Amino acid sequence: MNITPKTPEQLAEEKLFKDRRHQQEVQDLRKNWNAPVRHAQRCPEMVSEWGVVFEKLKALIEPSKGRTIALVGGRGSGKTQMAVEAMKFKTNLLKSALFTTSVDLITEFQDCMGPKAVCTRMEVIRKYREQNLLVLDESGKRGETVWENSVIFGLLNHRYNDLTDTIIIDNRAPEEFMASIGDSLVSRISEGGAIFDFKWETFRDSALDPMDAPAGAGKSSSKPPLNL
Ligand SMILES: Nc1ncnc2c1ncn2[C@@H]1O[C@H](COP(=O)(O)OP(=O)(O)O)[C@@H](O)[C@H]1O
Ligand SMILES: [Mg+2]
User: Fold this and answer.
1) Is residue 210 assigned to a domain?
2) C-beta 204 within 6 A of ligand 1
3) What is the Cα–Cα distance from 208 to 190, expressed in whole angstroms?
4) Residue 1 Cα, ligand 2 centroid: separation in angstroms?
5) CA distances from 63 to 49, 59, 68, 85 (A)
6) pLDDT per residue over 122-151, tens digit each?
7) Is residue 187 in some structural domain?
8) What is the pLDDT of residues 37-77, one digit of tens each?
9) Is residue 2 part of a domain?
10) Any idea what the CATH number is for the domain that residue 74 is in?
11) CA 77 to centroid of ligand 1, rounded, Å
C-alpha cells in the first residue's frame, strides 16, 4: 500500500488540533477545581528558594504514588500559591485536582449527619477520594477533635491506598505541625512524602506582590534567600 506522506501544512494543522483538544480538556478539569481565583490567576516566577521547592514538589507528585506532602511555615510565604501551581501542573497532565480547606471539608462531613443531612458521608468521601491531587489548606484552623482527626486521617488513608496525592498546608512550624497531626499522619508523610518548611520572608509585602500593590507600583527585586 502506498501511503502519501503528510505535507508540513497537514502536520501543523494536526498539531494545532491536538493542542486545542488538550487545552479544552485542561479547562474542563479546572472548571470545578475550587482553586482561589487570586492564586489561579497569578503566574509566579519559578525562581529563588520557592522555585527550588516547587521543582521538588513536582517531582514528588508527577508519578501519582499516594504521597502526603505538607507545606508549612509563616503566612504569606507562598504555600497556597505553590499548591495551586501543583494543581495547574497536574491538570496540565490531564489529571484531576481539587482545592479545599480543612474547615470546609469538616463542614461538608458535618452536613451529612443528622435528620437534615444534605448528602451522605459516602458521597463526600467519594468526591474527595476520586481526585488525583487534593489540596487541604489551612489545616491548623479546625478544631482538631478526635472525630475531626479520624475523618481526615480516614480520607487520607483512602487516598494513600488509591495512590493519589494530597498536599496539606499549615501555618505552623514543622515541629508544632507534626505534634498536632498525630503519629498516623506523620508516618504517612514519612512514607514517600515530605514536609517543606517555607521559612523565607512573606510575599505579601505589597512591593513584592503586584496584585496587592497600588496601580503603578513596580515589583521589587528582593527575593527570599536561596539557602535550603
Ligand atoms: N513565588 C511567588 N511569586 C510571586 N508572588 C507570590 C509567590 N508566591 C505567592 N505569591 C503571592 O503572595 C501572596 C501570598 O501568597 P500565599 O500563597 O497566599 O501565602 P501563604 O499561603 O503562605 O499564606 C499571594 O498574593 C500570592 O499570589
Ligand atoms: Mg495560604
Assistant:
1) no
2) yes
3) 34
4) 61
5) 23, 8, 13, 16
6) 999 999 999 999 999 999 877 778 888 889
7) yes
8) 999 999 998 989 999 999 999 999 999 999 999 999 999 99
9) no
10) 3.40.50.300
11) 6
123 CA from centroid of ligand 1 (Å) = 33
Q: Does residue 220 lie in a domain region? A: no
Q: Residue 98 forms beta bridges with which residues? A: 134
Ligand 1 pocket test: which of 209, 222, 226 has the largest number of ligand atoms within 8 Å of its C-beta? 209
Which residue in this structure is represented by grid cell 463542614? 107
H-helix or E-strand containing 56?
helix 48-61
Rounded Cα distance between 181 and 153, Å, is 9
Mean pLDDT score of the chain = 88
**d(CA 221, ligand 2 centre) in Å:** 23
Determine contact, residues 189/70, Cβ cutoff 8 Å: yes
Beta-carbon contacts of 192 under 8 Å, excluding residues fewer than 6 positions away, are 60, 65, 66, 67
Retrieve residue 199's grid coordinates.
521559612
Label residue 210 by pLDDT band (50, 70, 90): low
Task: Report the distance separating Cα 168 and Cα 71, nearest Å.
Answer: 6
Ligand 1 proximity of 203 Cβ (cutoff 6 Å): yes
Count of domains forming the chain: 1
Which structural domain, as residue segments, surrounds residue 47? 15-198
Q: Half-sphere exposure of residue 26, counting CA atoms within 13 Å on the CB side?
A: 13
Point out the ligand nearest to the CA of residue 208.
1
